[in-house]
C-alpha cells in the first residue's frame, strides 16, 4: 500500500505540543518503571515489620502479574477510546494502589495495594508508548523510543538506590509516597498536552479479555512461583499449566468470533509483530536472568554491600542506554532497523559467554566490562521492537501492537527469572553437598560464608560460582536463539510522514494466513 500523507486537518499532531507530550510520556514511563524496581531494597524491612516471609514474593509477583495481564486490554481500550482518557484512568489507578501500599498495616493490605498499582502500571507503559505513535511519524519515532529505552535503563539503577535511601534514612512507606508527585505531574501535563478522542459506540471483547487474563495469569504465576513457593511437580503447578493451555484455546476461539478482538489474531500473521515479539521475549529472559543473579554473586562471593552491588550494574545500564539511544537515532536517520537486532543479539551473546568465565577472584572492573556488553546487546532490541511494530501494524491496532511488545517482554523476563532460579538452586545444592557447616543452597550468604573454616569457605565460593555458569551459558544460548530469529525479521522502511494506514499493513500472504487462523 502506498503511503498517503495526511493533511493538516487530519494530522493527529496538529495543535499539540510535541515536546510537552514527550515530557509527559517520559515521566509516565519513569513512574511505571520505578513502580517495579524501587520495592526490592525494602522487602527485608517490610518482612521484619509485618512478618509473613512466606508471602514476601507476592509483593513483587502481584505487581508483575497485574501489569502483565492488563497490558493488551489497555492497548485495545486506547485504540477504541483514545489514549488520553485511558492513560488518565491508568495513572489514577496506579496512584490509588501507591496510596494504599504506603499506608499498609499488614502484608495482605500491601499485596492488595501492589496489585492495584500493577493494574494501573500495565496501562502506563503501553498507552504512554502508543501516544508517541499518534503524534510522531514512524521515522522520527525511532530516536524518541531510544530515549525512552534510556529511561527504563536509568530506572533499573535509580529504583533500587532510591528505595535503599528511603529505607535507610526515612521509612519504607516513602517508596510509595514518592509516586504521588510524579503521578500528579504526569496527570497534569497529559491533561494539557493530549487531545481527547471523539467518542463512538464500540463493542468490547469481554470474553476474549477474560480468557486472555486467565492465560497470562496462569503463565506468570507458574513461572514466578514454580520451583520456589510451589514445587514444579505439585498439583498447583500442574493445575496452572492446564489452566494456561485450556484458556489459550478458549481465547483463540473467542478472538475468531469477536467484532473488536482484544488481541487480533491477524497480528500474529504479521512478520514484524511476530518476530519482534519473539526476539523481545527471548532477550527479556536473558536480561532479567543476568540482572537478578549478578548482584547475588557480588554480595555473596565478592562481599560487597547491597548498594555497591546495585552500583555494579551501572556499566550494564550505560551500555543499554548508549546502545538504545544510538539505535534510535540510527533508525530515524536511515529509516531502517533490521540490522540493529541482529547486531545487538550478537553482542549480547558475546557478553553472556564472557560472563561464563567469571570466577571467585574476577575483578569488578572486568565484570563491569562484560556487563557493558550485555547492556549494549539488550538496549537496541527494546527500542527497535516498539518502533518496528508500530510502523508495521494498521493505525487502528497501534495500541494492541505496542501492548504485545510489553506483554511478551515481561513474560520472557518472568520465565527467565524462574527458569534461571531453578537452574541455579539445583546446581548450587548439588555442589554444596558434603560441605560441613552449610545446610544447603538456601542457607548460603556472606555471613554464613565468613563463619566457615577457610577450606570449607573456599569450596563454598567455588560451588557458588560454578552454579552461576550454567545460567550464563543458558543466557548465551538464548541470545543465539534471538539472533537466529532476528535474521528472519522483515524490514519495512519507516515512513517519514503520517499515513492513513501503514505501508506494512498485512500483505497478501500474511492476510491469507490470518484468514486461515480466524477461519
UniProtKB/TrEMBL annotation:
It is a multi-pass membrane protein. Pfam families: MFS_1 (PF07690). The chain crosses the membrane at residues 20-43, 55-74, 86-112, 118-136, 148-167, 173-194, 206-225, 237-254, 275-298, 310-332, 339-359, 365-389, 410-428, 471-489. InterPro entries: EmrB-like (IPR004638), MFS (IPR011701), MFS_dom (IPR020846), MFS_trans_sf (IPR036259), Tet-R_TetA/multi-R_MdtG-like (IPR001958). It comes from the Bacteria. Its main location: membrane. Residues 21-494 form the Major facilitator superfamily (MFS) profile domain. One of its GO terms (cellular component) is plasma membrane. One of its GO terms (molecular function) is transmembrane transporter activity. It is found in: Cell membrane. The keyword Membrane applies. Keywords: Cell membrane, Membrane, Transmembrane, Transmembrane helix, Transport. This is Major facilitator superfamily (MFS) profile domain-containing protein. The lineage of its organism: Bacteria, Pseudomonadati, Pseudomonadota, Alphaproteobacteria, Hyphomicrobiales.
